[in-house]
Amino acid sequence: MEWHQIPLGLLQTNCYIVSKKDNSCLIFDPGEEAGKLSSFIQEKQLTPLAIILTHAHFDHIGAVEEIRQEFNIPVYIHEKEADWLVDPTLNGSQLFEIGKLVKGNRADYVLKNERELEIGEFIFQIAKTPGHSPGSLSFYFKEAGFVIAGDALFSGSIGRTDLPGGDHAQLLKSIHEQLLILPEETIVLPGHGPATTIGQEMDSNPFLNGF
What we know:
By secondary structure, the protein is α/β, with parallel strands linked by helices. Helices cover about 20% and strands about 30% of the residues. The chain has one domain: Ribonuclease Z/Hydroxyacylglutathione hydrolase-like (Metallo-beta-lactamase, Chain A), CATH 3.60.15. It is built from six helices and 14 strands. The strands form three sheets. A six-stranded mixed sheet has the order 1-2-3-4-5-6, covered by helices on one side. Strands 7-8-9-10-13-14 form a six-stranded mixed sheet. Helix 1 links the parallel strand 3 (about 25-30) and strand 4 (about 45-50). The radius of gyration is 16 Å and the shape is globular. Pfam families: Lactamase_B.
């Protein structure tokens, strides 16, 4: 199994493509620049099976509709942010005045209390990691040794909590109870910036000290 990090849009939001040897793949957080993302998929001759969202802020969902329609694949999102895909006031594109309103169709699958998801040959664990947003999720690929953490945990930082629905105490609780319990060698794939590891953040992330 391989993962590919593709920064997209003005905020350089990390989209992740996770692929297997049979060239099937999953797309996490297609935030913008659908053409760039599509070109990468075609160049690698990949076959997308689904779009999966860590959360639904505008910079993580801007290319959802174009990619969904191009490859005719379903979209997965947590129930607490199901309305955000269709409402620019909720996903932040209206608040931040980014030049366009991000508004699409509803997700095909709404995640509630699932702990594991199986799509094609992919099997991975789901962890609720709210705090940055109320429906934030992280996705742990145990055998491959990485977790897609969205905007919960970054290299040397954590997600902002000053947006609607954000909660700083809840975010710290999520990180400690859902992410820092993973093996220290686990690679953390964040929504922005470079990859890190659980061990590195345990040792040096200033936002996690003294929790």
